[in-house]
TrEMBL record:
SUPFAM superfamilies: MFS general substrate transporter (SSF103473)
InterPro entries in alphabetical order: Dipep/tripep_permease, MFS_trans_sf, MFS_Transporters, POT_fam, PTR2_symporter_CS
Organism: Sphingomonas paeninsulae
Region (Disordered): 1-22
Biological process annotations from GO: oligopeptide transport
GO molecular function: peptide transmembrane transporter activity
Coiled coil start-end: none
Transmembrane regions: 69-90, 102-121, 191-210, 231-255, 261-281, 302-321, 333-361, 373-391, 423-442, 454-473, 485-506, 518-537, 567-588
Cellular compartments per GO CC: plasma membrane
Protein name as catalogued: MFS transporter
Stated family: Belongs to the major facilitator superfamily. Proton-dependent oligopeptide transporter (POT/PTR) (TC 2.A.17) family.
Keywords per UniProt: Cell membrane, Membrane, Peptide transport, Protein transport, Transmembrane, Transmembrane helix, Transport
Length: 596
């Protein structure tokens, strides 16, 4: 592979002396400790916000399940799309360190803006096209919704056949409404809705500058062929989950105990800690992530202004996503594609251009070996889409499942909130990451470490088995149609094992297979694949949408059956794709030319 030199204009300077001979941190370059902590605090902020976002949209703004999961999927898709641009800008102009600092400040501002959500939306219902007020009484398990019709307060009760019964004070049915004729909604303050979208836009832009570039610096700590690289990325990945572990407990706790604003404020504080670790590094990262050598004018201010001007563009994309019409019945694939929001069109076409264009480009500028290595990376990136589409149900459909169809009691001692269930994944990653780091190193010494394609295949099978495990648990529900929390914890355990087989390995794979001068862009393409997966994840979650009134389901059995059916289908699909990848892994391994 081509090795960039310090006097190569327009390329990042990653020509360091191998740090293996210097100070180490648990056998790794000393700089890994600071990058580990920086990423830990950044993920503290992001995952703390993410633990709240779906419930915030559903319970505070009273969006329908389709709007909630669609907006969540669109947001997380853009969060992973912008690194494609951020990585390229860092490679060519800013350098990784300046990009990270700018991104951290913008993200922190976004979390802070989320603190201002205004009053909770006012619920209403349309019955046979006529609008009526909704009154919510009680809380928790005793919370009920009443529709006010002709000066009568009628209890809303969903039925197993998806019709809706309106019950009088004596519990008798006064009226039964077909599901298609009962539509619930909420009156939202337009200003606070727009402000929420501005906050999501800020987070999206900031993440684009932060996310790809810190991973690139981690990769630059290791010389080509250094077998510690995979273990180093696994340790780095543990830092990600150490931050998310605490934030996914604390931010939801504050949201319930104090208010939504308190949870988002804590996320903003964590993000500022991340910024300070790079801004005030005491020279510990000198020589890493520096701007490329260039004789041209400094474009940094122009880039910062351009990034801020992108915020209203992203706000428009969110608005377009929320208001996009559905494809008409019988319109076919062409009608479906035309009806897609602008964001979806941009995602899909950008991804298609990347997976086709990059191999073509690499065949022209690189050797045959470099072309095949880049092709192997692109193929694995495509499989990566399937994994993250299903894994990222955690922030949407699985969170709503926890809220609606999970008994959140811990041994009967206390209960946690639905948002806090996402901490299981982070806990298992923190507990298992050191084990996997030692495991990969030990297996590598013995020459029996699974290849990267095999690890990807195992991950896909694992994410499928996690969903099938949860579906198994739905057979043991009680009359409240809620599974025990340990079935959900079991899913997260299986998914965490699968995640450790693909995510840190994937980041390392990109730095090892990419042509050196485009490693930042390829890291962006890696996150682009996750971006496409996030949008698909929102679409999958929409399939699991159930009817809600005032943020609560109208029938727990219908809700459980809907989730179980969706999880069963995607579980079988993922396991099948994983088996296929295991079958074709020898061919991909050949293209990798000894990269492990």
């Amino acid at each position: 592979m081509d090795t960039p030199t310090a006097d190569s204009p327009g390329e990042p300077d990653i020509s360091h002396v191998n740090p293996a001979s210097g100070e180490t941190w648990f056998g790794h370059p000393r700089q890994l400790a600071r990058l580990f902590t920086t990423e830990m605090w950044e993920r503290f902020g992001f995952y703390g916000m993410r633990a709240l976002l779906t419930l915030y949209l559903a319970d505070h703004f009273l969006f329908s399940d389709q709007t909630t999961t669609g907006l969540y999927g669109g947001f997380t898709a853009l969060v992973y799309l912008t690194p494609l641009v951020g990585g390229l800008i860092a490679d060519r102009y800013l350098g990784a360190k300046r990009s990270i600092k700018f991104g951290a400040l913008v993200m922190s501002l976004g979390y802070f803006v989320l603190c201002f959500g205004g009053q909770t939306a006012t619920p209403f219902a349309k019955v046979d096209g006529q609008r009526y007020e909704i009154t919510v009484k009680g809380s928790g398990e005793t919370r009920h919704q009443f529709v006010n019709i002709d000066n009568r307060s009628l209890l809303i009760k969903g039925n197993d056949d998806k019709t809706v019964s309106l019950l009088g004070a004596d519990g008798k049915e006064v009226r039964r409404v077909e599901g298609k004729d009962f539509e619930a909604g909420g009156d939202r303050n337009p200003f606070y809705t727009a402000l929420m979208l501005v906050a999501l836009s800020l987070i999206t832009v900031g993440n684009g500058f932060f996310k790809p570039n810190i991973s690139t610096i981690v990769g630059s700590l290791y010389a080509q062929g250094d077998r510690r690289r995979d273990a180093g990325f696994t340790i780095f990945y543990m830092g990600i989950n150490l931050g998310s572990l605490f934030s996914q407990l604390l931010c939801p706790f504050l949201a319930v105990a104090v208010g939504w604003w308190a949870g988002f404020l804590l996320a903003a504080i964590g993000m500022l800690f991340s910024y300070s670790l790079i801004q005030f590094d005491g020279g510990k990262l000198k020589g890493y992530g520096e701007p490329p050598v260039s004789t041209g004018p400094d474009r940094s201010k122009l880039i910062y202004i351009g990034a801020l001007l992108a915020i209203p563009v992203i706000w428009f994309l969110f608005t377009n996503l929320m208001n996009a019409p559905h494809a008409g019945s019988g319109s076919g694939i062409v009608g479906y594609l035309l009806a897609l929001p602008i964001m979806a069109k941009a995602l899909f076409f950008t991804f298609i251009i990347a997976v086709i264009g990059i191999p073509i480009w690499s065949s022209r500028v690189g050797s045959r070996q470099e072309f095949q290595m880049m092709l192997a990376a692109i193929v694995l990136i495509v499989f990566n889409v399937t994994f993250w589409t299903l894994f990222e149900q955690a922030g949407s459909s699985l969170t709503l499942f926890a809220d609606r169809n999970t008994d959140l009691s811990i041994f009967g001692w206390f209960s946690i909130s639905a948002g806090q269930t996402q901490f299981f994944n982070a806990f298992f990653i923190v507990a298992l990451a050191p084990v996997f780091s030692v495991l990969w190193t030990a297996m590598a010494r013995r020459g029996i470490e699974p290849t990267i394609p095999v690890k990807f295949g195992i991950a896909l099978i694992g994410v499928g088995l996690g969903f099938l495990f949860l579906v198994w648990g739905t057979q043991f529900v009680g009359p409240d149609y809620k599974v025990g929390i340990w079935w959900l914890a079991g899913l997260y355990l299986i998914h965490s094992i699968a995640e450790l087989c693909i995510s840190p390995v994937g980041l390392s794979m990109i730095t090892k297979l990419s042509i050196a001068r485009v490693v930042g862009m390829m890291m962006g393409v890696w996150f682009l694949s996750i971006s496409v997966a996030q949008y698909f994840a929102g679409m999958v979650a929409q399939v699991a949408s159930v009817e809600t009134v005032g943020g609560q389901v109208t029938n727990a059995k219908v809700s459980l059956d809907t989730y179980a059916g969706t999880f069963w289908t995607i579980g079988l699909f993922a396991a099948g794709i994983g088996v296929f990848l295991l079958i074709v892994s020898p061919l991909i391994r050949k293209w990798m030319h000894g990269v492990k």
